[in-house]
Every structure is written in C-alpha cells, then in structure tokens.
Amino acid sequence: MQDSTIQPGRTEETTTGPLRRLAGLLRTKRTDHVVHGAKTLIAALLTWGIVTPWAPDGRPYMAVATALLMVNASTVYQSVTKATQNVVARVAGLILALATAHLLGPTAGAVAVIAVIAVLAGPRRTADDRLQIASTAVIALAATATDPMGSLISPALQTLTGAAVGITVNALILPPLYLHESDSAVRDLARSMGTLLHDMGTGLSQRQLTSKAHNWLHQARSLDKHLTRAEEQVRQADESLRWNTRCVAHTRRKETTFNDTFSALRGVSIQIRGIARTLADSAHDNHADHHLGHQFLDQYAQTLQLAGAAVQAFTEPAPATNSPNASPRERLRGAIDSALAWHDTMTDMIARGTLTKPGAWHVYGSLMTDAERLLADLDRADTR
C-alpha cells in the first residue's frame, strides 16, 4: 500500500521536471527574440535619423545595413571586431573603386580588374573580407565617375556611423549573455558521463561485461560530441562577458565562467574512455588467465557507481534555502571520499594478491590507474 501511494508522486515528478525545464527554455527564447527585435528596430531607426540629414539624396542605406550587422552580432566583443573588419573592408573597396574608375572608368575592364585584385588580396584576408571589398568596389564604381571624392567620403562616414550606432545599442541595451547555455551544456556533459559510469558499474555488478562492454565503449566515444558542444558554449559564454556592461565586476565574471569545470570534465572523459576501452578489450580476450575476477569486478563496480555520482554532483546547482538536502559540495565530497576509500581497499587487495590472476595484472593496473586519475581530477577541481 505504501509503495502504491509513493510511486505516482515519483512518476509525476519525473514527468513534470523535463516539462518545466522545457517551458522555462521556451520563455527564455521568447524573451530573447523580443529583446533582439527591439534592439534591431532601435538601431535601424536611430541610424536612419542620424544619417538621413547629411546622406546623399537622403538615403542612408549603407549606414543602416552596417548598424543592423553590428547590433545582430552574437556578443559585444564580436560586434566590435566585426565593425573593425567591416569598416576596413568597405573603405578598401571604396578606395579600389576610386582608383580603378580613375584609371579605366566605369567599364567592364574596371570590374574585371576589381575581381582580380580581390582574388589576389592574399591569404591574410578571409574570403568574406575579399568578397566584401569586391562587392563594395563594384557597387561604388558607377558613382565614382560623377563624384569621385563624394562617393568615397559619404559611404565611409555612413559605415562608421552605422557601426558606432550598432555597437552602442548592442552594448547598452541588454547585451547578450550565454551563461545559461554554457551551464546547460556543461551539466549535460557531466550528466552523460555520470550516467555512463553508473551504467558500467551496474553492468559489472550484474555480470554483463561481455554483452555490454562494446556498447559502453561506443557511448564513451560519443562523449566527444558533448565535449565539442560544451566547449563551444563555454567559449561563447566567456566571450560574451568581455566588454559586457552587464558584467562589469570582475568577481562576477570569475564566478560565472565554467572554464575550470569544463577542463576538469574533459580530463575525466579521457579516463572514462580508457576504462571503457580496457573493459571492452578484456571482455573479448581469449586468454582465460586475463579475465577479471568476480571479487574485483564487484568492488570496481561500486567504485564506478560512486565515481558516477561524484561526476553528476560536480555541476549540480545549490539546493533551495532551508532544503534538508546536503549541498552539492558536500555530496561531491562524500562521493569522492567513498570512491577513494574503495580504491584504497582494492589497491591493498591487489598488493596482497587476493584479487588477481598473474596474467591479468596489466588489466587491473589499467583500470585502477584510470579510476585513480578520474578521482584525482575531480578532487583537484573540487578543491579549487
């Protein structure tokens, strides 16, 4: 009777948890779209109002286009760097158009010369920069024939003004941050690692080494996808903090970055892959004296389960105030201490020769070394 009353609650909690996270994510995305649209509109209208009075024929299209490009940069840092590249590329294109029109006039030959020069601009410039130089030069080619200096000065000033407005709007009106995406990616990585460690431990305790070893190895290799995604998100989050008016205090920047956590998890992933590879090789080793003993497997299984709990606790958020649950640091510390205690026990048994066969020393040594390094990485990261 007691089980029947508890189980539905657990099922409901298990079901509503992901739904709540999904709803929160959708609300965040919707808010981001609204802010993004408002910033784009403000940058466009502000640039139009500033540039129209002095733009030729009242057409500040180049300024508005530049402002939209800058305000839509993913970070404030990127908006500044893109602005610099954009201004340099467009000014180079305008100068190229002026020089070509002076020598050849607005002819097909001038267009051919512009294309050749843009292609031969050299490897120091990216393909986008060369394309922007060439396109700007071709568009400005016709205007340079009638008003050479005006066709150079006005677009250059429009580009500078649009870039300044776009950067200012992007930097002052809720500049983008990617801390939530970074946190989510790192926690997903830790959750995947912890789940795999727990699955390997459970499988070893249930004598499923032969049937599941290669699947564990495949999952361990698949962690590279999670690592790549987490690395990109951490890099973007760190970049979004640079020159960000919402994170002026250096202390906040240090608290919010996940670089140290990701570095620790990247080291842990190497050990997990090594453990999975050793287990897979051992599972299909034809030498009978290379097989792992049941007593070792039972204790190593518990070590992997404790290590999985430690990895998952490594990135868990703090519990609510007055929560009866232990803090993430306490749970992590307890899991690491328990796993280290099992590790010491197994090391002692191997040293006394109570767990191993002579031909399996290299297998025991590899598994013990990987487990020791995994726990050491977590321990050092937890201490920091």
A few lines on this structure:
The protein has 384 residues and is mostly helical.
Please describe the topology of this protein.
Elements: H1 2-51, H2 61-71, H3 76-104, H4 108-119, H5 127-146, H6 148-172, H7 179-205, H8 209-240, H9 250-256, H10 259-283, H11 294-313, H12 328-351, H13 361-383
Overall form:
elongated
Low-confidence stretches: 1-19, 249-255
Which structural class should the secondary elements be placed in? mainly alpha
For the record, give the distance between the C-alpha atoms at the N and C termini, rounded to a whole number. Answer: 47 Å
Q: What is the radius of gyration computed over CA atoms, rounded to a whole number of angstroms? A: 30 Å
Beta-strand percent range: under 5%
Order of helices and strands: HHHHHHHHHHHHH
- Averaged pLDDT, please? 76
Largest sheet report = none
Per DSSP E runs of 2 or more residues, the count of β-strands stands at 0
Give the number of helices: 13
Helicity range of the residues?
Answer: over 70%
Q: What does this protein look like?
A:
The chain is an all-alpha fold and 384 residues long. The protein is built from 13 helices and no strands. The chain has helices at 2-51, 61-71, 76-104, 108-119, 127-146, 148-172, 179-205, 209-240, 250-256, 259-283, 294-313, 328-351, 361-383.
